[in-house]
Amino acid sequence: MKKLESTITNMVLVLVGVALVTGSILAYVNNVTEEPIKLQAEKTLADGIKAVMGGVELTVAKDDTVKQTIAGKETTFVIHETVDANHKSLGAAVESTTTGFGGDLKVLVGFDREGKILGYTVLQHSETPGLGAKADKWFQKDGKGCIIGKNPASDNLSVRKDGGDIDAITASTITSKAFLLAVTQAYNAYKSLPVDAHTGASSKH
User: Fold this and answer.
1) What is the pTM for the complete model shown?
2) Distance between CA atoms of 68 and 44, rounded to whole angstroms?
């Protein structure tokens, strides 16, 4: 077989060929893995919703998307309204994102119908390694900065340094503030829904 001459044209053709083959392989891999990744993400969210709502048997009756302008930036909240086996409203699990020390901090917070916090989990963070895990435990029922059972409408969900009622994560005030802000904003988004949304008969579309 005759060896290709090292010309610009041949080099370009070879590079284009390699790029086409590589692109085809990546497209195939993406196609094969897309559905399993999607299903896993859905399962993770479903498990998270159940956990933050107190671990009870429930069904997500409706998903609402609420957009609010906060500090000049449009922020999106996803509200998963839940009901029990008798279709009675249990409250909602709310996805909320704020900016932490290293980037976005996304949490899922469960509220009962009156707005009391039932539970939470950290869905995504870009904090210093270890801080995300700390935040996922620090504010839980047995944590030093427990927020479970509190209601943002009547309890001051800010760190003690700012006059609030919550102990900040040791040596991590910024992450603590970002987390508590995400929780408060999640509450505000939930309460922005029509009143009947909190009784399992939302009219918001």
Assistant:
1) 0.76
2) 26
